[in-house]
Design brief:
Helices cover 48% and strands 11% of the residues. It is mainly alpha-helical.
Length: 130
């Protein structure tokens, strides 16, 4: 019988949070769905530039397994599948906005084109008069 060589480590809640919404694509998918609401796969793919179908599918699968995104399929011809944020997924938005604001304050790339979803987080216009 197989026995683990190492005991499971005690994970900090921060590690769980970073696993769920960290990484390059998870937070982007969450932000796009927050901005545009319920989307079909092709619509989500169009909004997510520079992502392969394989990576998008894996990202959605991961977010669904963590109950951040809901996948709803309809019994229609042609088949229709829609993705939207769950209540848990929407609950992370203030956290992601705070991270975006912090990053915007300390890291500016003049050549970078921000995502339109980032405009919600952009506080530079609010602070221009201060």
């Amino acid at each position: 019988m197989y026995q683990k060589k190492l005991k499971e480590d005690i994970r900090c809640p921060l590690e769980y949070g970073l696993e769920v919404f960290g990484g390059k694509w998870n937070s982007r998918v969450i932000c796009v769905l927050a901005e545009l609401g319920t989307l079909r796969y092709s619509e989500l793919r169009r909004e997510m530039t520079n992502i392969t179908d394989t990576v998008l599918a894996a990202t959605l699968k991961s977010l669904i397994s963590h109950d951040m995104v809901e996948r709803r399929s309809f019994d229609e011809i042609p088949p229709r599948v829609e993705y939207s944020l769950t209540e848990k997924g929407r609950s992370v938005l203030p956290i992601l906005q705070s991270i975006c604001q912090w990053a915007g304050a300390f890291h500016r790339d003049p050549n970078a084109q921000p995502m339109k979803q980032c405009e919600k987080c952009d506080f530079s216009s609010e602070n221009k008069g201060n």
